[in-house]
Structures are given as structure tokens and as C-alpha cells.
Design brief:
The protein is an all-alpha fold. It has four helices and no strands. The relative contact order is 0.05.
Length: 197
């Protein structure tokens, strides 16, 4: 701390308009508080100490932040790993349940579907075949009677034409019935397929 030139300061105060008593009182007060006044050098030294303390604090904070960031990253990786494992386990459980449901539903549905298709095929074959065969027999019998009664070429040609027409109609009816059976069968297959989960 620099020394105060009291005589020079006293003269400057008196020249500035202070009374001698006021100047002396002021100098006495300055002398008593001399230890507590700071000089520019004191302020520079304090600023350097503060700057060093701030740098040290900044380095400590930086290290603490890096450590905290590393700890957070590690925790996030562990959480991500656990979440992935939990999701994989959940997916495996869902797949196992789906397989179990599909196997049970498929066996029962396939057996039921097979029985239904077989009974439908038998019913259609019995009904369509009997009715169509009876119609065909009647047509053949009537044709035979007509041939026997009229054995001319013209009659035979007309009968052949009538037979062809009836055969075409019979073919058409059979095609329609088979198509209806296939559509029914396809509808049953679609209806019995397991629904996606």
C-alpha cells in the first residue's frame, strides 16, 4: 500500500476551501483507516486472484459437467438396452401366443371346414347328379321312343340337334352349379381363416 503525503494533501485541501480544522480531521480519518483503503495495485492483485479463482472454478465445473454427461450417457445406454430387451421379450411372447392361437384355431377350423366341404360336395353331387341324370334319362328315353317311332334321317337329325341343345343346357347348368359350389367353398375358406392380431 502506498504512503499518503499528509502535508501535501493538507495544503491541497486548504487551497480547495477546507478550513484547517476540517483538513486535519479528514487527514486523521484517512490515517486511521489507512489499512482498509486499497490502492490500484491492491485492486489489480485482487482482480488477478479473482480471475485465477474463476478459472479454477470454471475448470472444476467443466470437469463436473463432463462427468455428469458421461454418467447420463451411460444411464441412457443402459436404459436403451433394457428397453430393447423388454421389447424383444414382449415380441417373442406375442409371437408365441399367436402361434398357439393359430395352431388351436387352425386345427379346429380345418376339421370343421373339411367336414362342411365334404357334406356340401356330397349334397351337391347327390342332388345335381340325381336330378340331372333323371332328366338325361328321360330325354334319352323320349329320344329313343321318337327314334323308334320315326326312324327317318330328318327325324334323327332333329333328335340329334335336340340332344345337343339339351346337352349344352345340361352342361351349362352343371357349370353354374359347380361354380356356385366353388364360390361357396371359397367363401367358407375366407371366413375360416384366422384374423391377424
Amino acid at each position: 500500500m502506498a504512503m499518503l503525503d499528509t502535508h501535501r494533501t493538507f495544503e491541497s485541501l486548504v487551497a480547495a476551501g477546507f478550513s484547517k480544522e476540517m483538513a486535519e480531521s479528514l487527514l486523521d480519518a484517512l490515517r486511521e483507516s489507512g489499512d482498509t483503503l486499497a490502492t490500484k495495485a491492491d485492486l489489480r492483485e485482487l482482480a488477478q486472484m479473482n480471475k485465477a479463482d474463476l478459472n479454477e472454478l470454471a475448470q472444476t465445473n467443466k470437469a463436473d459437467l463432463e462427468e455428469l454427461a458421461q454418467a447420463n450417457q451411460t444411464a441412457l445406454q443402459e436404459l436403451s438396452y433394457q428397453t430393447r430387451n423388454d421389447l424383444n421379450a414382449l415380441q417373442q411372447s406375442i409371437q408365441s401366443l399367436q402361434q398357439a392361437v393359430d395352431e388351436r384355431a387352425t386345427k379346429a377350423d380345418l376339421n370343421s371346414l373339411r367336414q362342411t366341404v365334404q357334406s356340401l360336395q356330397q349334397a351337391v353331387e347327390e342332388r345335381a347328379t340325381k336330378a340331372d341324370l333323371n332328366s338325361l334319362r328321360q330325354t334319352v328315353q323320349s329320344l329313343q321312343q321318337a327314334v323308334e317311332e320315326r326312324a327317318t334321317k330328318a327325324d334323327l337329325a332333329a333328335v340329334a340337334q335336340a340332344n345337343k341343345a339339351e346337352l349344352r343346357q345340361l352342361e351349362l347348368r352343371m357349370t353354374v352349379k359347380v361354380g356356385a359350389m366353388l364360390v361357396t367353398l371359397a367363401g367358407l375358406l375366407v371366413a375360416l381363416q384366422p384374423l391377424p392380431l
